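Bench log, entry 3. Co-assembly request; chain sequences pasted below exactly as received.
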Amino acid sequence: MSAIPTTPSDAVPQAPGALHDASDARRVLADQVELLYRQAPIGIGGALLVASLIVYELYAPHSRELVIFWACIALLVAASRFMLVRAYSRDAAREPDPERWLRWFSIGALAEGVSWGFAAAVFFPSISDEQRVFLAFVLATMTAGGLPLFSAVWWVFALFAFGVIVPFEAVLFTYGTRLFSELALMIPILLTINVAVAYRLNQVFVSGFRLRQSYGRLTQDYTTLNLQLEQRLAELEEAGRQVETSGRKLALFAERSPIPIFEFDWNGVVLTANPAAENLFGYSVAEMIGKKGTDFLFPVEVHADVLAKWSGFMRAGKPVVALRYHNVRRDGVELVCEWSITPLVSPANRVQSVIVQGRDITQQLEAERMKQEFTSTLSHELRTPLTSILGSLQLINSGVFGELGNDVAELAQVAERNGQRLLDLINDLLDIERIESGKLTLFSEPLALRTLLQEAVNLNKAFAERFNVRLELSADLPDVRVNADVKRILQVMTNLISNAAKFSPAGGAVTIELHDLGGEVRVAVNDRGTGIPENFRNRIFARFAQADATDTRQKGGTGLGLAICKRLIEMMGGRIGFADRQGGGTMFFFELPKYRAD
Ligand code: ADP
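Structure output for the full assembly:
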C-alpha cells in the first residue's frame, strides 16, 4: 500500500522507471511469480500431451520397461508441479512470499527440464534414426515452448532449458552420427539465443509489471485524493452552515438588544447599527451608515478628544470597556453613555471593523446624584438639631441643673443613649456617602502608633466598661510609625475596639497588639467572643451587614462600621481582615505601610 498523500503534491505518481524502493521491487516480483504459476497448468498439460506422444511413438516390446519408467518420472514431475500450483493458489489470498514460491517453482522447472533431458539420455541410444529425429524435434519444441511459459523470470527459463539441453547434448556427442554431432554444436547457439530472448522478454514483463504498479498506485492516490476532497468539501459546507447560523443568531441578538450597537470601520465611519441605536439617537440606520461617529454622536467640545482616543484604540487593537462620554441626540438633548469598544482583528493583526456598544446611563447617574444629595441633606438637617438636643440632655444628666427624680433621670439617660445612637448612624451615613462620592479628604502625617493606640484605649475604656470588659494594651509595643490620618485611624480603632467589647463575654478582656512586619505594621484587636459565623464571613465588610439582626437593638451599631473601616484603611494604602483567635474569639487587624523618614 502506498502512503496516503497528505497534500496534492504528495500524490504525484512516480515514473515507471523510478521504482527503486524494496517494497516496489517485491511487488513486481510477486507479479512475476503470479504469472509463472498462472501459466504453469498450460505447461504441465502440454508436457503431459507430448509425453503421451513419446510413449506412443517409442513404445516397443524391447523398450517397454524404459518407456514406462520414463513415463512414470514425467507423470511424477507433472503431478508434483500441479500440486505446487494448487498450494500456491491456496496461499494466493494471503499475500504469499514471492521469493519462497519462486524457489519452489524454479525447482519444479528444473525437474521438468531434466525429465525431458533424461528422455533423450535413456531413449537415444536404443531408437532408430527416424525416432531420434522425432525426439530431437520434440526436445527443441519443449525448449521453445518453455520460452513464453518461463521467461517472466529469465533464469527460470535458463534452468529449464539447461535441464533439457545438457543431457541431450551429451547423448548427441556420444551416440550420434556426424549429423547429430553437428546438431549438438548448434544447440548451445540456439540455447544462448533462447536465453537472450527470455532475458529480453523478462525485461518487457518487468517493465509491464512496473507500469501496472505505478498505475495502481496512481489510481489509489487519485481515489484517496478524491475522498479527501469530498471530506473537505463536506467539512467546508458544514462550516459554512455553522457560520451562517451563528451569523443569523448574532444579527438577531443585535436586533433585539436594548443596548445600542454600532459597527464602525477603522476610521470611525458607521457600517451598520441596530434598532436600539436608532431609538436612542433618533437617526435611522440608513442615515447613520457612511457617517463618521464623531460628527453626529458627540458634542463638538469632545470631538478632538474622542478622535485622539479612537486612533489610539485602533493602533492598540485591544477591547476597551466602560468609557464614559457625553453624547448628543438628534434633537440636541445631551446624554451620558458608557461605551465598550471591541475591534475585530484579522489573523494578520489588522482591525477589520469595530463593534461599539453604548449604554445610556444618564438616568442612573441622575438617580445616584439625587440619592447622595438626599442623604447628605437629610443627614445635615438631622445632625444640627440632634447635636443640640444631645448637648442639652448631657447637661441635664450631668446634674448641672440640680438632682432629677429617679424616673426622670432614667428617661433622660434613655433619651441621651438613643440620641447618641442616632447621631452615630447619621455620622456613619455621612462618612460612607463622602467616601463613595470621593469627597472625603485624608490628612496624612507620620504617626507614632504606640501613642495612638494608648489614646484609642483611653477613649474606649468607658464604653468597654459598660459591657464589663477590660482593654489591655500588650506590653512591648514596637516603636513604629505610619503615614496616616490620625482622626481616621482613631475612628477605625474605636470601631474595632467597640465591636470587640460588644461581642466579648462579660468579665472578659480585649487585647490590642502592634507588630512590626518589616515593610508594614499590623495592629490587631483580639477578643474572646463567639467568633464570626461561617455564613457571614464573606459579607462582613459590606454595608449594613450584621450577623444577627437583633444586634442593632441589643448591642447598638448600624452594620456600617466595618464597611467604613475597610474603605478608610484602603484609602491609606493598607488592608484590613480578621481571623479566628487561637483559644476562641476573633482577631481583627489592619496593616499599613511603615513610614520611613527618607
Ligand atoms: P456594627 O456597627 O453593627 O457593629 P460593624 O460593621 O462594625 O457594624 O459590624 C458588623 C457585624 O459584624 C456586627 O453586627 C457583628 O455581627 C459582626 N462583628 C463585628 N465585629 C465582631 C466581633 N469582634 N465579634 C463578633 N462579631 C463581630
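Confidence is low (pLDDT under 50) at residues 1-20. The chain has four domains: 21-207, 257-360, 366-437, 445-593.
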